[in-house]
Automatic annotation (TrEMBL):
Domain of life: Bacteria
Residue spans of biased composition, Basic and acidic residues class: 292-301
CDD domains assigned to the protein according to its UniProt record, in alphabetical order: ChanN-like
Region (Disordered): 292-313
Segments traversing the membrane: none
Species assigned in the record: Marinobacter guineae
Protein name per its UniProtKB record: Haem-binding uptake Tiki superfamily ChaN domain-containing protein
InterPro entries: Cofac_haem-bd_dom
Domain Haem-binding uptake Tiki superfamily ChaN: from-to ranges: 35-243
Length: 313
């Protein structure tokens, strides 16, 4: 039976930088170094994150270095770069461009310097491959608007770099996605056309990341992959994880998932988070973005308008 008591050596995260690693079954606390030793022979280590959370990113960096000490042949695979920008990322890793040039040319995320710079710099200093693992953003957006047939319009050079089966699926993931977008979007076991296209866009991301991880293993045999992704793509063994296992059943994969430790509790909420990953790391919740629901709606509307400014013709 899983432990429901808080281990004596596990304390509440004190700052947003803190993360407490836990083995869900036993409730035992682990340091990044102890976790790395446990994962030394694992083919693919997937660390889910809450995008922009300092605790997630510091934990990723500490685990990256700890894993490297166990297995120096390491690949850093990142959702945060799209595969069509791999050449620009490679030029930076080779020292041919500066950081600002890379950020602009490779369309790095806005929080690159604060969140991902330490990971990429460690890989660059150690001469390790960094894989731009995500599907092209414009393609994902247009599949979400127009449906899977949009892939017929994608330039052949890009289409060839994407998975041959871009919409592989699992029933549990479909159910999780439907729950996430709200029951109002569901009609019994099906989703309406708009939400179905949105789901296909999500699958395109997951299938692309799974395929890119496998390609990197084929290109760099004997290497361990450290893949960074938003937790929805990996927790509960779904999304990218399930598709990776479908494509390569013999591959060993470990998932490290984040969970929030409520500010009012002295014990980590293991019971409701136990299934999220092979290992968990507890972090402080982030501050609420909005208290005013009207301002939140306006902000979401503005974000949506920005995302729809480009056409898919």
């Amino acid at each position: 039976m899983p432990s429901t008591s808080s281990p004596k050596n596990l304390t509440m995260p004190q700052t947003l930088y803190d993360a407490r690693i836990v083995e869900p079954e036993s409730g035992a606390a682990l340091t990044p170094e102890q976790l790395a030793r446990r994962l030394a022979e694992t083919d693919v280590v997937i660390v889910g994150e809450y995008h922009g959370h300092q605790g997630s990113h510091l934990l990723q960096s500490r685990l990256q270095t700890a894993l490297h000490r166990q297995q120096p042949r390491q690949i850093l695979s990142m959702e945060q770069f799209n595969l069509d920008h791999q050449p620009e990322l490679d030029r930076y890793l080779k020292g041919e461009t500066g950081e600002t040039e890379m950020i602009e040319d490779a369309a790095a995320w806005d929080n690159y310097r604060a969140s991902y710079r330490p990971l990429v710099e460690f890989a660059r200093q150690k001469n390790l491959p960094v894989i731009a693992a995500n599907a092209p953003a414009d393609v994902v957006r247009c599949v979400g608007r127009k449906g899977p047939s949009y892939l017929d319009k994608v330039p052949e050079s890009i289409r060839q770099a994407m998975p041959s089966e871009p919409f592989m699926d699992t029933p549990a993931y479909r159910e999780k996605f439907a729950d996430a977008i709200g029951a109002s979007h569901r009609d019994e076991s099906t989703m309406n056309d708009r939400m179905e296209n949105t789901y296909k866009a999500q699958l395109l991301r997951d299938n692309t990341m799974a395929a890119r991880v496998l390609e990197s293993i084929g290109r760099y045999p004997g290497h361990q992959v450290l893949h960074l992704t938003g937790t929805f793509h990996s927790e509960d063994g779904l999304g990218t994880v399930a598709l990776l296992k479908q494509r390569a059943p013999k591959l060993s994969v470990a998932v490290i998932s984040p969970a929030f430790w409520p500010a009012t509790d002295t014990r980590p909420p293991l019971d409701q988070n136990q299934s999220k990953g092979d290992f968990l790391y507890f972090i402080q919740p982030l501050p609420d973005e909005f208290k005013d629901s009207g301002r939140e709606r306006e902000a979401m509307k503005a974000r949506f308008q920005r995302s729809t400014s480009k056409t898919c013709d």
